[in-house]
Amino acid sequence: MALQTWNSKDYEQNARFVTDLGMGVMDLLAPQPGEHILDLGCGDGVLTKKLADLVCSIVGADASPDFIQSAKNLGLDGRLMNGEALSFTEEFDAVFSNAALHWMKQKEKVSEGVYRALKPGGRFVAEMGGKGNIETFEKACRAALAKRGLLEKIPEPNYYPTAEEYGDLLTKQGFKVEYINFFERPTPLPKDAKAWLHTFRKSYVEELDPADVPLFLEEVQEAVRPKLCDARGHWTADYVRLRFKAIK
After folding, report:
1. How far apart are CA 147 and CA 227, in angstroms?
2. What domain range includes position 104?
């Protein structure tokens, strides 16, 4: 199975809305000057740079070599690291994450690593996809994969929990959950469904015969068009988000 891979140029063109919409969870973080913060799943570092401008010390961690190079190009301390295998011990005042935790399916290992990385009293503040996130896209993708006999070969790449599920996970790890919110956030897309698929479902696309990729993208786009595209041709994805703050 091909794992999800990321390309910074592609991300800039098709997914910058992810960074732009991260400002709400950054407000919940409320970073203070002098704090040492870990941005878990920092992506290309654009949102991390905003944090760095507010605090004295920030580390960006991501499993994508391309993203980490982009973060370093912004002058950031970028670490190539799997979020399911963090190597920090009581180093950070806060761990921050935006739109990344749902890519880390070994959720218990993530919570263990974050808990260990925080200083006593440190906070874990994040936003991720919640249950039902991009459901229209996913149903259409799975139907198209099933048609090609690939459904069993290619599992869904994400974990989208309810607030209760993730709150229980954090509590069992030892966190005190101060705030958790589950909400729908219909999200306008900069381009069409094909562009979104090319960026966020690359793990599906890379398993296809290259000659079949255009047909797959067209097939999925037309399947989701009735729900996600308006009469003017504007696309809006059915995003559902889970935002929380928990204290060690």
Report:
1. 21
2. 8-133+158-189+240-247
Give the per-residue pLDDT at 76.
Answer: 92
Number of H helices, E strands in the chain: 11, 9
The arithmetic mean of pLDDT across residues 40-61, rounded, is: 88
Q: How far is CA 55 from CA 52, 179, 209, 220, in A?
A: 5, 23, 47, 43
**Residue in the block written with tokens 């929990």:** 161
Number of domains in the chain: 1
- Two structure tokens written together for 222: 């037309």
Q: How many CA atoms lie within 13 A of 149 on its CB side?
A: 1
DSSP 51: H
Task: Tell me the CA distances in angstroms from 65 to 62, 130, 150, 228, one per residue in order.
Answer: 8, 26, 28, 32
pLDDT digits (tens, 9 = 90+) for 161-174: 999 999 999 999 99
Residue 225 maps to a domain:
no
Chain-wide mean pLDDT for the chain? 90
CB-CB neighbours of 66 under 10 Å: 16
The CATH code of the domain that includes 58 is 3.40.50.150
pLDDT score for 14: 44
Torsion region of 100: left, alpha or beta (phi above 0 gives left; psi -120 to 50 gives alpha): alpha
Does residue 112 sit within a domain?
Answer: yes
Q: Looking up tokens 């919409």, which residue turns up?
A: 21
Handedness of CA 12, 15, 19, 23 (dihedral sign): positive
